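Data availability (excerpt). The following record was deposited with the supplementary files.
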Amino acid sequence: MKIAVSADGPDLNAKVGFRFGTSKYFIIIDQDTMDFEAIANPGASTYQGSGVQAVVLVISKKIDTVLTGYCSPIAISHLTVNGIQVLSGVKGTVGEVARMYKKGKLQRQPGVESRLETGANKIERTLIHALKNSANQFIRLLPVLTGVVLLIGLFSSFMSKELLSSVFSGNIVTDTLLGACLGSIFAGNPINSYIIGGELLEYGISLFAVTALIISWVTVGIVQLPAEMAALGRRFALVRNTVSFALALVIAILTVAVIGV
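Predicted structure:
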């Protein structure tokens, strides 16, 4: 078995190199005979790309284990893929750590490898959390979707084209006013206004009425008016709803006029 120890010098008395990629030397030690060979690290003088050169050098020497102070995650991945074990967080002289490793007293330190495992666990936890959030959002949205489907069915069953034609005469002013009134009275999720608006358009109701209905549904709330008055004051609630109703009429007419242009 051969080990490679990153070192600051060319012999067993040298200190273990702090960083794998930029250590001055690699001491290649045969664990059976304790014979060693000192090899200068070609990447020691150039910080950029030093890790890659060190990895290539170690792999070419058919090393079984690398002992070093610090090894980057990328270097560890390349070394482990090639069957080389990496022990980081190693301190002392090259000879000391080599003998400790041979006796089985040098254990894996909580260094980069642990952080890699922690990072993998973090990614897994993030993925699970995202899936749970997506499932929860779908569950919360399910009642709304169910309500939309039921609303379409009810609207188609109870609202005939003849009935709607008798209510909406085709006059721009009265249709817009009626649409705003209906939107002010109706309550529920704003999505429902889009469904009802789409059905009204299918039945030939003017875009003025549908636009006014959608706008007033969102901005005016007759059903919620008592609660709004209690929370924000009677005067504020009445003024806000009145202004919102008037603006719904104006915006509906302007919107349809712009679309027509």
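Summary of structural features: Residues 159-260 form one domain.
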